[in-house]
Specification:
about 300 residues; alpha/beta; 2-enoyl-CoA Hydratase, Chain A, domain 1; seven-stranded mixed β-sheet; about 35% helix; about 15% strand; globular
Amino acid sequence: MATLKDLFRTKPKYVTVKPVQGEAGPVRPPAPKPKEVPDGLWAKCPGCQSILYQRELSKNLHVCSRCGHHFHVGAMERLAQILDSVETFEEWDGEVATVNPLGFPGYEEKLARTQEKTGLREAIVTGVGRLENYPVAVGILDFAFFSGSMGSVVGEKLARLFERAAERCLPVIVVSGGGGGARMQEGILSLMQMAKTCQAVERFGRSGRPYVSVLTNPTMGGVYASFASLGDYILAEPGALIGFAGPRIVERTIRQPLPSGFQTSEFALKHGMIDRIVQRKELRPVLAQILRLHAR
């Protein structure tokens, strides 16, 4: 007669594998190494957190195909997106270099590192090119260079851009992405560029040629409070942060909750601060249409 213990007896094992014994105990086989992913092959979208293939992202003008987030674009790549050909672009004042007028500690070293990293001498590239065969003066602020902040050289190059455009009767396109505003390492000399660029825009307006200001994420501080907000046409990319002080600073200052979407390009359009929101792939056709409207 079988007992209750016999009913739950386990089946006998046919094979027993003994672990390999080492001096410090059982030796386990090494875990397989994870496959290495080359740097720069993938990018994470800040908007939807999706992992995007860099080559496909580049084909889509660095715009997320899933949520439409517009990534930062460098100055030279922006020129390639706007102009007919970068090869025919003639740069102006490329030799103008920044100094350290206030003796700010470590400023020269940081400038040298940023120049080496970006391949640019300053945060802005200016010159003349062609858009659908229309000659146009162009200025591009690069966010990768000191957050696109406006120092003495940036203000000087912008002023010269408007002056030369007025002399040659050229329209002006400036793409702004200056989240740093005025550059603190240059103090009051940086703040003076706000007045200088505003005066340059006002003098350029007498030529009767259009000035198109394109605002990208983020356009803040002294950049927005001067030349960036003075365009005859003010366009903006979707979701761009636009304003003087950031939303957190404003909220802490007034001690009141801010409305939804405060200081985004959509909020600015709703309140009449900009003329149109333009997707990056539509920017070149829209700019060309503006030039055609003002062609002589």
